[in-house]
Amino acid sequence: IGAAKLVVVVAIFLLTFYVISQVFEIKMDANLGHIFARSALDAAARSTKPPRYKCGISKACPEKHFAFKMASGAANVVGPKICVEDNILMSGVKNNVGRGINVALVNGKTGEPLDTKFFDMWGGDVAPFIEFLKSIQDGTIVLMATYDDGATKLNEDARKLIAELGSTSITNLGFRDNWVFCGGKGIKTKSPFEQHIKNNKDTNKYEGWPEVVEMEGCIPQKQD
Predict the structure, then answer these.
(1) For residue range 182-208, what is the model confidence (pLDDT) as tens digits?
(2) Residues of the chain whose pLDDT is less than 50?
(3) Which CDD domains does this UniProt record tie to the protein (predicted)?
């Protein structure tokens, strides 16, 4: 409403100025007039533009929380994307994603990125993934997203370590399922941040893969 009033006021002002200039034969610099009108209208447009929050999430996070947004891969074509505090940690554009499970680690106190890696769970070996999971320090935020297939090589040891980070879906993660998860090392409860869609030929969006899963939220900052 305020923006609409501003536009009307600007329009009336310009019209009044034009009429006065015609009556008194005042020559107004056309360029100056155009610039003034344009800047006033641009200001009105900016006042109606919705605010942008970190990572493009739908609402601002409260104090002492980190904003995050993530998406799984799309079939075997488009890689996953992980953003925390307006930092794109992993994406196809950054060229640091790959088939399997993509993992980003973030400092739970500062929100600073620590590491990014992907582990091929179709043609790779699960052992390096297990070693990586064991090496994560307490207080670390852990974000995971599948791409193509993230489950074939997963064994019970790997699934148990991911469950200890707060995941409930990892025990049921199957061939070509889409899954995104945000948990933490040393978490005492199950994480509320998890989305999982089963690979089902009757409901798949793509021929051999389900639709992309997306998730956003606010991660509580680790307190001392």
Answers:
(1) 999 998 899 999 999 887 877 777 777
(2) 26, 28-30
(3) ILEI_FAM3C
Closest CA to 144 of 127, 156, 132: 132
DSSP sequence for 64-127: TEEEEEEE--BTTTB--EEEETTEEEE-TTTT---SEEEEEEEETTT--EEEEEEE-TTTS-HH
Rounded Cα distance, 160 and 174, in Å = 15
Pairing label, strands 140-147, 100-107: antiparallel
Q: Return the domain boundaries, the chain.
A: 1-45, 54-220
Instruction: Decide if 148 contacts 99 (C-beta within 8 A).
Output: yes
The answer to whether residues 98 and 171 touch, using CB atoms and an 8 Å cutoff, is no
Q: Which long-range contacts (CB under 8 A, 24 or more apart) does 154-162 make?
A: 154/121, 154/126, 155/126, 157/126, 157/130, 158/126, 158/129, 158/130, 158/133, 161/130, 161/133, 161/134, 162/133
Q: Dihedral through CA 114, CA 220, CA 172, CA 206, nearest 10?
A: -80
Tokens 């739908």 appear where?
A: 58
Kindly report the pTM of this predicted structure.
Answer: 0.76
Q: What pLDDT score was predicted for residue 150?
A: 93
pLDDT in tens, 110-138: 999 999 999 999 999 999 999 999 999 99
CA–CA dist 42, 56 (Å, integer): 23
Distance CA 133, CA 103 (A): 10
Q: Is 163 helix (H, G, I), strand (E, B) or coil?
A: helix
